[in-house]
Amino acid sequence: MSDIRIATAEDQILLDKEAKYCSYGDTVHYIEPPRIFSRCEGSYVWDTEDQAYLDLQMWYSAVNFGYANPRLNNALKQQIDTLPQIASQYLHKGKIELSEMIAVDAKKKFGLDGRVHFNVGGSQSIEDSLKVVRNASNGKSLMFAFEGGYHGRTLGASSITSSFRYRRRYGHFGERANFIPFPYHFRGPKGMTKEEYGSHCVQQFARLFETEYNGVWDPKTNQCEYAAFYVEPIQGTGGYVIPPMNFYRELKHVLDQHGILMVSDEIQMGFYRTGKLWSIEHFDVQPDVIVFGKALTNGLNPLGGIWAREELINPKIFPPGSTHSTFASNPLGTAVGLEMFKMTSEVDYGAMVMAKGKYFLEGLQDLQKRFPIIGDVDGLGLALRCEICGPDGFTPDKATLDYMVEEGMKGDMVVDGQKLGLILDVGGYYKNVITLAPSLEISYPEIDLGLKLLEQLLVRATQR
After folding, report:
1. Where is 13: in which H helix or E strand?
2. HSE of 245, CA atoms in CB hemisphere, 13 A
3. Which residues form the signal peptide (predicted)?
């Protein structure tokens, strides 16, 4: 086992410049010294010493289709040579056709007419969705959201994100959330099946509407003080927590009874991460708004947006100028987004992702049997979780996972004679969950390699 890695002389010069000239507010230094990378391809990134790292988090699920995907890269290159930029007050073919693809797909799946509105990323699109929701509800600024939920770090998005630390220094500017428990079965009450716990959580939420004295409902006017419920169908930063399949269907019934919109945040779980275009599709409900970003352009050019029901976003209720961003619907982003949709329509992408996810999950379950510190594993498609705990298999153990992440970044593990590093992401309520979001293009031998590298890290962690 190697000691703490020392930065090369060239890297140290860059790190010294970073320390003097760069804001630390836009990054996170998980390890010291931070690694500097020079190239990427497929499921791998290489540092400045040309050391390879297998990446099992893919830029927080922004690069679903692999680093430097040739087909998507070429779509960007071709667009650069034709219409690389145009003011968003004008139209271009890519915006219209990409909107059509998303809206037609939603009509087919949910039976609802709707429209697509673009912005430059996930948090900005959350902000736009808040405007749509507030506008449609006559200015209601209160929202429901989940404990463990993450929706971004802009002012509005952080107000509906459950972590107080993201807004502690900035206060509130309008939106506020009432945070509702998520059916996190592994850490829920004992003695209930997963489905029973899901129903229990819905019943506890429904209590809020039994009487006006529970604080959200006026029975005399049949009005709720809250405009919408923001959900991540599968929690992302919260630790890839997968709810029971009955949960959203029962929750949506309560929301519809009381005129509360459901906004599905698909920023991290959209674009086939869970084996479907939208993760909400697994749960047999009709969302009122979908927010998307990240993997739409495979991380090549920032583009996000929302799909909303026609009644919420048609030009009469949400007219031109309702909200605006200079780089919204930029032609580089829409070109890559269109190519992504074409690429994923040519094969049964959902079946492919589900098969790989099943294979990966079986490997994690095997590791769980051999390492008691793995308290829980679960997955849907290629959104997988591995919860690191104490010897009892339940007490959260953040320190051990931090150690594993640092060891993986040393780049000194050896498999079949090849020296490798392993990039993992940390999530969960207690920051003790490995949230695995490998490339959807990952090969089965690469899954095997990832499991072998994880095994080495677990051995190091248990023997230290």
Report:
1. helix 9-21
2. 4
3. none
pLDDT of residue 4: 60
The Cα angle at residue 299 between residues 83 and 94, in degrees rounded to 5: 30
Domain count along the chain? 2
pTM for the full model? 0.97
- Taking residue 339's Cβ as centre, other Cβ atoms within 10 Å add up to 23
Q: Is the dihedral of CA 229, 150, 148, 370 positive or negative?
A: positive
CATH of residue 382's domain is 3.90.1150.10
Contacts of 81 (CB under 8 A, 6+ apart): none
Quick check: 377 and 333 in contact, CB under 8 A?
no
User: Residue 356 and residue 358: Cα distance in Å, rounded?
Assistant: 5
The 10 Å CB-count burial string (b at 16+, else e) for 165-178 is: ebbeeeeeeebebb
Does 335 lie in the same domain as 380?
Answer: no
Which pLDDT score is estimated for 1?
45
Return averaged pLDDT per consecutive 10 residues of the chain, 464 residues in all: 71 94 84 90 97 97 98 98 93 97 98 97 96 95 97 93 90 82 96 97 97 94 96 98 98 98 98 98 98 97 97 97 92 98 97 98 98 98 98 98 97 97 97 98 98 98 95
- How many angstroms separate the CA atoms of 196 and 240, rounded? 20
Alpha carbon 257 to chain centroid distance? 29
Domain that holds residue 161: 75-345
Alpha helices in 52-159, H assignment, sequence order: 58-61, 70-80, 93-110, 122-136, 155-159
Beta carbons within 10 angstroms of residue 196's beta carbon: 16
